[in-house]
Amino acid sequence: MHEHELETQVAAVPLYERIKRTLYAEIVSGQLKPGQQLNPPEKLATQLGVSSGTIRHALQLLASHGFLVRKPHTGTFVSNPFPLENSKASPDSKPLVYAMFPDVRMREQGQVLVGIHDAAKKIGINTVVISTNDEIEQYHQAINQQIEEGSDGMIIVPPFKESMPMDVLLKLQKSKIPVVTCYRRLISPTDWPLVSQDLFGDTYAIAEHLAKMGRRRIALIAYEELPERFAIRHYAFMNALLNSNAPVDCDLKLSLDNEVVKDSLRVYEVIKSWLREHRDIDAICCGGDRVASVVIKALTQIGKKIPDDVAVTGGGNMAEDYGFFPGELTTYDVGFESMGKEALRILIAMQKGEQFKPQFESKITGRIVLGRSTTGQIDIQHDLSGVVTPDI
Questions:
Q1: Cβ of 316: how many Cβ atoms within 10 Å?
Q2: Is residue 3, in this structure, part of any structural domain at all?
Q3: pTM for the complete prediction?
Q4: Is 144 in the same domain as 211?
Q5: CATH number for the domain including 304?
Q6: Please, what sign has the CA dihedral across residues 142, 148, 149, 150?
Q7: Dihedral of the alpha carbons of 154, 82, 49, 372, in degrees to the nearest 10
């Protein structure tokens, strides 16, 4: 049996943590400028539909991390200066680490940044964050600039759908700058260390959860940009069912290809059509919370109840971003913050002279987050009506 230990979390992400992440994303993306004053907690509470106590808790957490400054009788301000794109450090305070992101407004990337920032603060080093708001040409230019300026080290999150130009890759390799990549490699094979999701382990654990609940016709539905990632996910899924003595049907899978996901309405229709052809399914392991939201909408449209008729799991622990209420969707927390912390640990070790084997990869173990989509009745008659609009 595959030995994969995961923590299991029943509660959803606390409200104050969600507010903290929302404000954090606005700060690091530049929507909230250095020195800008925030609205009073009472006004923020009204805007966001939460209590003022929840807002104050979130503000205090951001202030403790250095992102906000709270001034008695005056208000709360974004820290100034804040290390964002185009930040200039003095020679005496040259940052040790540059964190390169395509777009930290994306929650996955924002969580990686939280991990880097928390770890950097703990060990007392400076970081400069460069995010180009999904302007890929600017992203490549920013990396090229850091190479020319002789960066002390870089943590790089590659764009999900673009490859880095070969001249930039070769220049980066020639520079000998310590580099750690997160989520996936810049190009394969390379000798730069990689910190990534344990795709096999996470998929295995969530499929095993469904099998242990007594589900017998379990399907896999996922979108992966790279075919080899779907193959890994499917292999893990099959292994979990085999080792749990659940029936195995290698054809109970739906891989959403790159052409299909360009049109979110087409994704919905493809999934609904596939489900109509497989009405005997009693559980679905989805490759992400986005996919799970579309799957559940399609299931309700063909008269299925969740989880009485079909149990559904997601992935990524971002269910509330796609219309779910807290605690509705069983998913897994990939551990993006842990990726950031691990990437910084490896980079600091490289700066101190530690050698890592070629193709070194550190996989981050996730944790299951239980929800009512596998453990109890849920009501999907709410804002999931718009789930087909986000890109998969």
A1: 26
A2: no
A3: 0.76
A4: no
A5: 3.40.50.2300
A6: positive
A7: 20
